TrEMBL record, chain A:
Keywords tagged on the record: ATP-binding, Chemotaxis, Kinase, Nucleotide-binding, Phosphoprotein, Transferase, Two-component regulatory system
Name of the protein in question: Chemotaxis protein CheA
Stretch list, region Disordered: 267-295
Low complexity bias: start-end ranges: 273-295
TrEMBL record, chain B:
InterPro entries documented for this protein: CheW (IPR039315), CheW-like_dom_sf (IPR036061), CheW-lke_dom (IPR002545)
SUPFAM superfamilies: CheW-like
Designated name of the protein: Chemotaxis protein CheW
Domain called CheW-like: residue spans: 10-150
Record keywords: Chemotaxis, Cytoplasm
Amino acid sequence: MDMNQYLDMFIEESKEHLQAINENLLILENDPANIQIVNEIFRSAHTLKGMSATMGFEDMASLTHEAENVLDLIRNNKLTINSDIMDVIFQSVDLIEGMVIHITEGGDGSADVSDPVRKLRAIVAGDFTAQQEVAAAASVAEPEVQAASVGNEAAKPDLDLDDYAQTVLKQSKDSGNNLLWIKVILNENCLLKAARAYMVFDQLESLGEVIKTTPAVQEIENERFDLSFEVVFVTMHPIEKVRTAIQNISEIQEVQIDTIDLKAPQAEPPAVQPEAPASNAAAPKKAETAQPAATRKVAAGGKTIRVDIERLDILMNLFSELVIDRGRLEQLAREIGKSELQETVEHMSRISGDLQNIILTMRMVPVEQVFNRFPRMIRDLAKDLNKKVNLEIFGAETELDRTVIDEIGDPLVHLLRNSLDHGIESVTDRRNAGKPEEGTIELRAFHSGNHVFIEVKDDGAGINKEKVLKKAIERGIVSQAAAETMTDKQIHELLFASGFSTADVISDISGRGVGLDVVKSKIVALGGSVSVDSVRGKGTTFLVQLPLTLSIISAMLVQVKNEKYAVPLSSIIETAVFKKDQIMMAHRQKVIDFRGRVVPLVSLEEIFQVPSNQAETDDEVAVVIVRKGEKMAGLVVDSFIGQQEIVLKSLGKYLVNVFAISGATILGDGQVALIIDCNALIK
Amino acid sequence: MLEQKAIVGEVKVIVFRLQDEEYGVEVQQVKAIEKLEHITRVPRTPKFVKGVINLRGVVTPIIDLRKRFELEESEYSDSTRTIIVAVGDLEVGLIVDAANDVIDIPVDAIEPPPEVVGGVEAAYLRGVAKLDNRLLILLNLDKVLSTEEINQLDALEG
């Protein structure tokens, strides 16, 4: 059967569950006695197992099954957690993550799971017997849980009810209906299983209401079940009548019917039930196994819907078209000069401006998505490096455009690894320096103006300037003479120079032959920047600045002969008009005096080899002053057209790496204007 | 190709003119045929890249096929057309002198290309189809649109 339509959902949910498991495992590591957390992990693992088995990813299913067994022992107090067990579980989770990635990339998710499976089995077998006494003790405390043995899971009525179903069941029970658990086993040589199942359902629906089926109705319809399926059923009729009705259908081997006991929840205060899904340990033991993640989420809070990212992208693209038309309309309204038209267009512009804000915020995703995999990564790394580190995350709720989020992960991983590897000292060094043994890395995200800042701050050794300079001179990045006059800041900037790595031994942590230069180029490619600040002995701070969005930006349109170009407003300081005689020459370079600073001039006409249009040149030049970090340059143009919101479009795959052009946009008149990459024009 | 021969026996091609020769590209590779419209020049690209156009909201690069094949240049006229072709995930417009025909050619009429046809090197050609009274040159678009050359030029300039 074609499972492709479910594949996306499967991948999405698997990732969520894995993330939840990872987070909970970290909590558990610090608080091993917390059975609540084990229950959470168990539920996620159970759901994962179910999903992967349904989707036919057998390796994943078998691995999660073994992990689940171990977790089951832990949550039933038959097994105490130690760091060895944690490591095996972490290893299994990693492997499952690998499989999910493999599946995402179109693979079949197969992997060699024999090693972790063997380890997990050893844990179940070995420690289980050793801790019988504990188990016995625990069984007194939790007789209910004890009764639900893992091995018999399949044979017992294993109901997997969500809150909604439970509420319905309870209400029907109260109003005197029969709650039934029905297991229908089909004849072995039944050919049309789905059809038989359909007939069963048909009968059942005429007698009462089907609350839940295992497997789900859709899967039964698709014949995705063996010979049997289970139904939770509410009816006013007696059991026997239901039984006969089903047995009258041909090719049915056997019908098992049992009444469902809802005593446990009824004993509780009823109001608590729907609101406390987390305390399901107290719920009826039959319903105990797994809570579908979705229902838990809904119960947990806000009203949200899940929208396919592709649709959001389409919405964005459509809106971009609208922005282009808006520009065109504004232009036409100005030309025509009719006041009613102008008013209407103005009104429309305002509305579409609001719309733009909403659409842009819809594409905003909390950085949490990227941040939440870091605690786990830092834990593993610290273990490998024999360092003690505590990662503190602030502002994980800060939002960024999805396109930026997708790209920012790798650079941040690199910065964090760098802080851990080069920043934080070893435990002995820290003790000698009179610092606490455990180092701290702070990861902080915050908004400021039109930008989002992400800060990676460690309380490690700080940057060793002498060492950096020595390396830089050795590698030929700076000359001896230049090095002597460098400021601290300039020295720190050397870390981002290509071909620079201060680690004496290239470790596989932040080594790998690439350095911070890659981080920098990636961030610059996103339209952001990165800087570093450091105090010797106190620590180092990396500050990454990112634009809020990448798709619609404000730009200044300029005219160069017959061509129009767009300069992103984010890099413009100001525009100015100079007399030709104000231009001076310095080192055969045209410069101007701009508010006391000497700013080099870059003629767009020359640099872009713009064909001449024989227009007369006047004695004034229009200059757009742009900046890149501290440096400035003046772009010489013919005239300014005005400021406008433009939609970023790529030049396509055919034209890549065009010099000083970062993309294109479509203007109000339908023509394409190129967007100037100011960074490439400033040396 | 052999399979196609057995089953179909014919390929449908769009016929266009360049200098005095007739060329063909498979109809599956052609997305649209457009009249020439405003092209925005992209600086510092190879000579044959005329620039980019706004093709229904998508910025599409345009190649002058005459320049691409180093043929004699000529003025654009009313019959000049842009054929938008898609090869893999590349979408590019080709400027040709005229495009006005769609024909089916029998697969067995296609012969391997000689060294040079109409001034175009064999590397860019897939074959030559001999029909009753006309000769049709079939283009190998993969080669024509290869970005290697652009990147090489980039390296030289940059």
